[in-house]
């Protein structure tokens, strides 16, 4: 009986995802099932709907319910200089090559609320590369992008962010990049002068430029294998020759169809260079 209930729940969730796609174009059908199931069950409890089908009925007729569910599906877990050794490796292994470029285009795909975008802007500023750089910060979640663009974050996060910054090889005082306001901590607007914030859906949208660097960290782990391959194709097609791809610590270019077209810049930190 337990297996039958699980099978029925999966059918209902698949119907919900198909309904979302048909009704408003949001495509979560190839997201990893365990992650989607957790988010659906959370929203069922919050909306007090007894079944997944009842939740589908509500979101099709209640725009606010739909908005809340889409927010649940968005991945917004991030922090500044997350995994400091990754950013230290970027400074050491990638920045010297970027110095040789007349201009630099960087894509933060799935940037969430923008903490890693500000991290990159700080690195480029400290390395004297910001003025010739453009950072494209994209996410499917419009509300997350608003937070990223505003550059206001909780004061309580600054101790962690400062520690990360120092471990990543920061060359100044982290507090020089922000000031405390009534709403929290506001980062200096000079850090976003060369940042373009825009909605982009990795599931349905294509390439929009050629980049020297693409960061997509801790996003692919939420996709199934077919969608991961699709996104790797997007990144490969969007990177110029010798462009850099940065992934999360549980993600890899290995075992994809593009594995032999990249070389390790720093295998441990998941930094790869496109070589063909």
Automatic annotation (TrEMBL):
This is Protein-glutamate O-methyltransferase CheR. InterPro entries: Bact_Chemotaxis_MeTrfase, CheR_C, CheR_MeTrfase, CheR_N, SAM-dependent_MTases_sf. It comes from Paenibacillus antri. SMART domains: MeTrc. SUPFAM superfamilies: Chemotaxis receptor methyltransferase CheR, N-terminal domain, S-adenosyl-L-methionine-dependent methyltransferases. The keyword Methyltransferase applies. Signal peptide: none annotated. Pfam families: CheR (PF01739), CheR_N (PF03705). GO terms for biological process: methylation. Keywords: Methyltransferase, Transferase. Residues 1-276 form the CheR-type methyltransferase domain. One of its GO terms (molecular function) is S-adenosylmethionine-dependent methyltransferase activity.
